[in-house]
UniProtKB/TrEMBL annotation:
The keyword Cell wall biogenesis/degradation applies. This is UDP-N-acetylmuramoylalanine--D-glutamate ligase. NCBIfam families: murD. Pathway: Cell wall biogenesis; peptidoglycan biosynthesis.
Length: 442
């Protein structure tokens, strides 16, 4: 079988290694340049590859094509592949065909990384053999090729779900839905939401689907869709007989028996993380992990880098790195959890953002807006009549310097950009790292 991999990053090279191990003829193609460590892996494993181009005749003679999530689905090569009817899969689809391990897959517009990492922590803390992959950690395919885990916890994006055929997790989680990446889904919110729901489309009645009962779009679609998996809801607004819910003080997990924990004991801060902690706890209970072990994990978990990460407190000002907030809804959660007057750093590559969703929170919580991007006009135009203090900056150094001047003792400086990072940075990690470096400069 001839297998072609599009994209030479973590997921693409992982898929190439797995294909090679399974005795396939492998060719990898990347339109950009391949990083040196990945290039060396391909050479060491005698895998044929090209970079800086796509040679169509070498790609379109494949039996199976594996696409990295970074390759746009509207790219010319993808249109050609679809026209020819060649099987096109994401790395998670490809790798899942070669493992019998139980897969716990997490999707949603926000909180995916945190919840995936928390479930991984719960399983690992209980002594289970577990791998972490998908959008975070090591390539899922590479782990299937080289490691032997009983469980895989995967963070899965809508882009990866676009390219599945048979992917069937043992437990799937859909945390929430909000308008994100609409540029890739014809600016149609329902089309994007349905892409997320594909996480459960191949599940059968011996599988589980954990969902957010408070999420309006999820509720609407569940009325139309036929879900075969056993459905388990979580809610922060109503009491549930099965699943999980929260009141003002505690979370309650209702599965087999009741288990509860004080919210103030949770390692994660913010109302959205109460929901994430409940979703992760349901998954833990489904895998027969004891209440005591889950409790211990929820208390000891350390937050994900670039997600509401406290960088430092300097001269009485807290600096928080939420660079991973690349859409308005993620920033909504960040602002909602702010307890002090906030100097807010926002901006980057706008993905069709609608700032009305956070307008009220900005009025209540934000004392000054510091725009960080090459083109900040849309943000300035939206907030100029609502906030006096708006600053226009085009480098991290400049943005942090402005924040230092404005912020007073007892304030918080929050980097929560609402936008992608590609105008000034390599990715959101690079943006978060540069923020931390500037904050910590003496």
């Amino acid at each position: 079988m001839r297998t072609v991999i599009l994209g030479g990053g973590e997921s693409g090279v992982g898929a190439a290694l797995l294909a090679k191990k399974k005795g396939m003829e492998v060719f990898l193609s990347d339109m950009g340049s391949i990083r040196e460590n990945y290039r060396q892996l391909l050479i060491q494993n005698d895998i044929d590859f090209e970079e800086g181009m796509h040679t169509y005749e070498k790609i379109l003679n494949a039996d199976w094509i594996v696409k990295s999530p970074g390759v746009p689905k509207k790219a010319d090569i993808i249109l050609e592949i679809n026209q020819k009817g060649i099987r096109l899969s994401s790395e998670i689809e490809f790798a899942s065909e070669f493992t019998d391990s139980k897969i716990i897959a997490v999707t949603g517009s926000n909180g995916k990384t945190t919840t995936t990492s928390l479930i991984y922590h719960i399983l690992k803390n209980d002594g289970l053999k577990v791998g972490l992959g998908g959008n975070i950690g090591k390539s899922f395919a590479k782990q299937v090729a080289e490691e032997n885990h009983d469980y895989y916890v995967l963070e899965v994006s809508s882009f990866q779900l676009d390219d599945i055929q048979n992917f069937r997790p043992y437990i799937s989680l859909l945390l929430n839905l909000s308008k994100d990446h609409l540029d890739q889904y014809n600016y149609d919110y329902e089309e994007y939401a349905l892409a997320k729901f594909r996480i459960t489309e191949n599940q059968e009645n011996d599988n589980f689907f954990i969902y957010n009962k408070d999420d309006e779009m999820s509720r609407n679609l569940l009325e139309k869709l036929e879900i075969k998996a056993k459905m388990l809801p979580f809610s922060t607004s109503e009491t549930l007989a099965e699943g999980a819910y929260a009141d003002e003080d505690r979370i309650f997990i209702q599965l087999h028996e009741e288990f509860s924990l004080k919210i103030e004991e949770l390692a994660l801060m913010g109302k959205h993380n109460v929901a994430n902690s409940m979703a992760a706890s349901i998954a833990g209970k489904l895998l027969n992990i004891s209440n005591e072990s889950i409790r211990n994990s929820l208390i000891t978990f350390q937050a994900v880098e670039h997600r509401l990460e406290l960088v430092s407190e300097i001269n009485g000002v807290q600096y928080i790195n939420d660079s991973k907030a690349t859409n308005v809804n993620a920033t909504y959660y960040a602002l909602e959890s702010m307890k002090k007057p906030t100097v807010w750093i926002v901006g980057g590559v706008d993905k069709g953002n609608d700032y009305t969703e956070i307008e009220e929170l900005v009025k209540r919580k934000v004392k000054a807006i510091v725009c960080l991007g090459l083109d900040n006009q849309k943000i300035i135009d939206f907030f100029k009549d609502k906030k006096q203090a708006i600053y226009d900056t085009s480098s991290m150094e400049e943005a942090v310097a402005v924040c230092r001047n404005i912020a007073e003792k007892g304030d918080t400086v929050l980097l929560s950009p609402c936008c992608a990072s590609f105008d000034l940075f390599e990715n959101y990690e690079d943006r978060g790292k540069k923020f931390k470096e500037e904050v910590l400069k003496k």
